[in-house]
Design a protein that fits this description.
The complex is a heterodimer. By secondary structure, chain A is an alpha/beta fold. Helix content of chain A is about 45%, strand content about 15%. In chain A, about 55% of the residues are buried. The longest helix of chain B has 17 residues, at about 75-95. Chain B is globular, with a radius of gyration of 18 Å. Classes of the chains: A alpha/beta, B alpha+beta. The interface of A and B includes residues 70, 510, 541, 545 and 546 of A. The structure holds flavin mononucleotide (FMN), iron/sulfur cluster (2 copies) and FE2/S2 (inorganic) cluster. FE2/S2 (inorganic) cluster binds next to loops of chain B.
């Protein structure tokens, strides 16, 4: 049965939600966590639930509704009891996800994006789920299901129709492989839990910071800021509220389509991640660490929480952590709810504080005023693992790896037209050619490095190197074989950004939608040189005027493919002049019907034009 | 100590520490186009109309702190072209039919479109479906014209202490909501006496039964283009507009 809004009577809802809000101490900063859990209880977030939650956390109701309305995984309308979301990254598409979704919809007799009439099931797409090395993938009620095939789809439709609980579906469907293909210093390290942390404490704070400086480690989350500089800034910034202290945040949002290396680190090297967080917290004097885990990775949560509990038992966390009498330190995990922009560090802080994931105005930077207005360091998962290694083996050792400006190694998430997709660790400076050779990319025409917001490299650039001084990347490395259509790749990216724009600033909110529409127009065969010029123009505006990195880089892949793979666009163009987005003649059809006229003069187009000229 | 000074299109503009580029310019009687900025409220930085080039980098004048010796480019063909495009984006995003709008002549969006010589909306219209809320006895909400500047949100929160307005949705689906389970303005504590009832720079929040009290053609921006209204510094008898 569809659970209609009116079935959720206010008193009943408030009673149902009481344990949830109490568990979170009715803390407005935990609003996103509360909304997530309320939805787990009720299936979706009916209007009465938003009112009840607003009352409990003492926030205006509209603020609560605004937060609930921001995140893709929170629902203000009833959803199916089986919520199936196909990962819509370009690699999933290359592996046939579109056809598989059609097949499932067909077999279940439903329309994409709509809930079946009996409220049983809904099928839609979601942005990249971080499973590109084992796609096509989907999420069913939040659980990832990888390596889809036609047979699996048919089985899924049967299980849904028979209403078999997802927990009773074949266990092997939910297996997520690590697919580690090349190990270097990080992935080959088998440290025991707490080892890096103890090494850091043994060194002492100042010498530790010194090692970090010597290592010249740069952030692995994309921007490549020197980690030591960021830490120093946070360590030296005054606390506005001395009681609050400093914060260390691990950015595990990993929303960039095509990356999945943080997933592997969290799944199989969680101890190194937590050690790195502890080392960083020790260095900057933080008492609280927060790990922001993207909603798509919620399946990792139980194991991560178990790990934290174990660390507490072993004295690595909590009062006098790691035997340091004056240091109380603990780590808390927050779950996101489907919003790529929350990977941007200030949007992430907003989300951590239970608000809409809108990037903050900078300055001030998080190092000065971050979580709760206190000095905060935000670091990527991989960066923190590297921090652990540096605590263990020293800065000089690390600086000896990679290149001068890009020290150490880099994890690449390789997917697309390759024989062995997965995670590869290389010292910085490795050439694109070498990587392509190692992963078995026989016939590549292009590589998208750094995901949609990165850069698209063509054949003649394959001698270039992965490093901040040449081709920087947060880790995505997506290969496109000669038979792929780069226009369709760019179109997929355009839709991704339009979907993920937070909507705060005008250029990105409207511009990304205009660009996506423009690409659809070209795809329909209604494009012209005019549309290509439009894309360039919007690209320049977004680059210059957007509030955050999302808008600034949103058109990069289009810019690259337009410059390097122009034929992919041009062979679609109907003419080199302007072609309108709508069909004038078609628009007149209703008027023709109403006036019962269908003579040539009632038509637009070449034939009608001749007639008019004759008159 | 010397007063800190920045150069705005080559003109020295003194300012006091803590001021933004926008504040420094306004104090000097220099107009930087803006929509979401209002001197009474904390800067928001979302419309991006105030985009200027400071020391070679594009920044929002309303949020960027002024720095001594900063060279700011404001009134240049490149920047005005970008602003025109931003205006066009706002025009196609909503449903703006100026000839029938009660706000015509008093509307900041329209005034800027004239100021920056925006002749057409250029982009294909989105024609969003944004139902009007006429539930309130005193005030009409015509969401068709909302440019999401959040001035009403800020006014209601900071001045009225009522939190009547908020934003929901994201991306192109971002929209204004009111603080009621029914979603209707009548079920909030909103009143015409609220500050938030009077800050809307466009024609969304409109007092009922006052339509066209002042004829179109005699209204604020009909009398003088918005850029001119800034030409004389405040206090010198000129009328710096309230927005
Ligand atoms: C739209 C956007 C999305 C981002 N997503 C991520 C992400 O998923 N993970 C991440 O570590 N950094 C992401 N970043 C970069 C972060 O803002 C920040 O630079 C990074 O977490 C800092 O960590 P690092 O210094 O260790 O690299 C993103 C940035 C932008 C603009
Ligand atoms: S650039 Fe896009 S994502 Fe970033 S603040 Fe603006 S609208 Fe939001
Ligand atoms: S209603 Fe008016 S004041 Fe409020 S956000 Fe929309 S345009 Fe701005
Ligand atoms: S006035 Fe500065 S961004 Fe709107």
């Amino acid at each position: 049965m569809v659970v209609a809004d009116e079935c959720f009577d206010a008193t009943a809802v408030a009673a149902l939600l009481q344990p949830v809000v109490d568990r979170h101490r009715r803390d407005p900063l935990r609003l996103l966590q509360i909304l997530r859990e309320a939805q787990e209880v009720l299936g979706y977030l009916p209007r009465t639930a938003l009112t009840a939650i607003a009352d409990a956390v003492e926030l205006p109701r509209a603020r609560v509704e605004g937060v609930a309305g921001f995140y893709s995984f929170l629902h203000l309308q009833p959803v199916g009891r089986y919520r199936i979301l196909f990962s819509d990254n370009v690699t999933d598409r290359m592996l046939g996800s579109v056809e598989l979704m059609d097949r499932l919809c067909h077999r279940l007799w439903i329309e994409r994006g709509k809930v079946s009439e009996d409220g049983l099931v809904s099928v839609d797409t979601t942005s990249c789920t971080g499973m590109c090395d084992q796609g096509p993938a989907l999420l069913v009620n939040g659980r990832p299901l990888t390596r889809l095939s036609a047979e699996r789809i048919d089985r899924i439709s049967e299980l849904v129709r028979a209403q078999v609980a997802v927990s009773d579906w074949p266990e092997e469907w939910f297996l997520v492989a690590d697919n580690i293909r090349r190990r270097d210093v990080l992935l080959a390290t088998a440290s025991t839990p707490g080892e890096a942390m103890r090494a850091a404490v043994a060194r002492g704070r100042e010498p530790l910071l010194d090692e970090l400086k010597r290592s010249n480690l740069r952030g692995r989350g994309g921007a490549g800021f020197t980690t030591h500089t960021k830490w120093e800034a946070a360590r030296c910034a005054p606390c506005r509220d001395p009681q609050g202290g400093r914060y260390l945040v691990c950015n595990a949002d990993e929303g960039e389509p095509g990356t999945f290396k943080d997933r592997v680190l969290l799944a199989s090297h969680a101890d190194l991640v937590f050690d790195g967080m502890s080392v960083a917290a020790f260095a900057i004097g933080a008492r609280q660490g927060l790990l922001y885990l993207r909603g798509e990775y919620a399946w990792l949560l139980p194991a991560l929480n178990e790990n934290l509990a174990r660390r507490r038992r072993n004295g690595l966390l909590g009062v006098a952590a790691c035997g340091q009498q004056d240091w109380n330190f603990d780590i808390d995990i927050h779950l996101g709810a489907g919003a790529y922009v929350c990977g941007e560090e200030t949007a992430l802080l907003e989300s951590l504080e239970g608000r809409r994931g809108v990037p903050r105005i900078r300055p001030p930077y998080p190092a000065q005023q971050g979580y709760r207005g206190q000095p905060t360091v935000v670091n990527n998962v991989e960066t923190l693992c590297k921090v652990g290694l540096i605590a263990l083996r020293g800065g000089d050792w690390f600086a000896g790896l990679g290149t001068k400006q890009s020290t150490g190694t880099k994890l690449l998430s390789i997917a697309g037209d390759v024989e062995s997709p997965g995670v590869y660790e290389y010292p910085f400076g490795v050439s694109i050619d070498q990587v392509l050779h190692d992963c078995g990319a026989g016939n590549a025409q292009a590589v998208q490095v750094g995901g949609p917001s990165g850069s698209c490299l063509a054949l003649h650039e394959f001698t270039r190197r992965i490093a901040f001084e040449d081709v920087p990347t947060a880790g995505a490395f997506t290969v496109f074989g000669a038979h792929r259509d780069l226009f369709e790749v760019a179109r997929n990216f355009a839709h991704f950004f339009a979907h993920e724009s937070c909507g705060f600033c005008t250029p990105c909110r409207v511009g990304t939608t205009l660009v996506a529409n423009c690409m659809d127009k070209i795809a329909r065969g209604d494009g012209s040189q005019y549309d290509i010029n439009e894309i360039f123009r919007i690209h320049r505006l977004l680059h210059a005027a957007s509030h955050c990195g999302l808008g600034q880089t949103a058109c990069n892949p289009l810019f690259d493919t337009l410059n390097k793979f122009r034929p992919a666009y041009e062979r679609r163009l109907r003419s080199l002049d302007f072609v309108p987005a709508f069909d004038l003649d078609q628009s007149l059809s209703i008027a023709r019907q109403m006036t019962v006229r269908d003579d040539p003069a009632a038509h637009f187009g070449p034939a009608a034009g001749v007639q008019r000229a004759e008159r | 100590m010397n007063t800190p000074t920045l150069l705005l299109d080559g003109l020295p503009v003194p300012f006091s520490v803590g001021q933004t580029i926008m504040e420094a310019a306004t104090a000097a009687g220099i107009f930087i186009p803006h929509l979401c900025h209002h001197p009474d409220f904390k800067p928001q930085g979302s419309c991006k109309l105030c985009t200027v080039k400071a020391n070679g980098r594009y920044v929002s004048a309303c949020t960027m702190p002024a720095k001594d010796g900063m060279e700011v480019e404001n009134n240049s063909p490149d920047l005005n072209d970008k602003r025109r495009t931003l205006l066009q984006m706002l025009f196609v995003e909503g449903n703006h039919f100026c000839p029938s709008c009660e706000k015509s002549g008093d509307c900041l969006l329209q005034a800027l479109a004239y100021e920056l010589e925006m002749l057409t909306a250029h982009f294909p219209q989105f024609y969003p479906d944004r139902p009007v809320d006429a539930s309130h006895p005193e005030v009409l909400l015509d969401f068709n014209r909302c440019i999401l500047c959040e001035l009403c949100v800020r006014a209601s929160r900071e001045v009225d202490g009522k939190n009547v307005f908020a934003l929901s949705g994201r991306g192109i689906g971002k929209h204004l909501i009111v603080n009621a389970e029914s979603g209707r303005l009548a079920d909030t504590g909103f009143s015409l006496a609220d500050k938030a009832a009077h800050v809307c720079p466009v024609g969304v929040i409109l007092a009922k039964r006052r339509g066209f009290l002042q004829p179109i053609g005699c209204r604020r921006y009909d009398r003088q283009p918005i850029g001119m209204q800034f030409a004389s510094p405040p206090g010198s008898g000129g009328n710096g507009p309230e927005h």
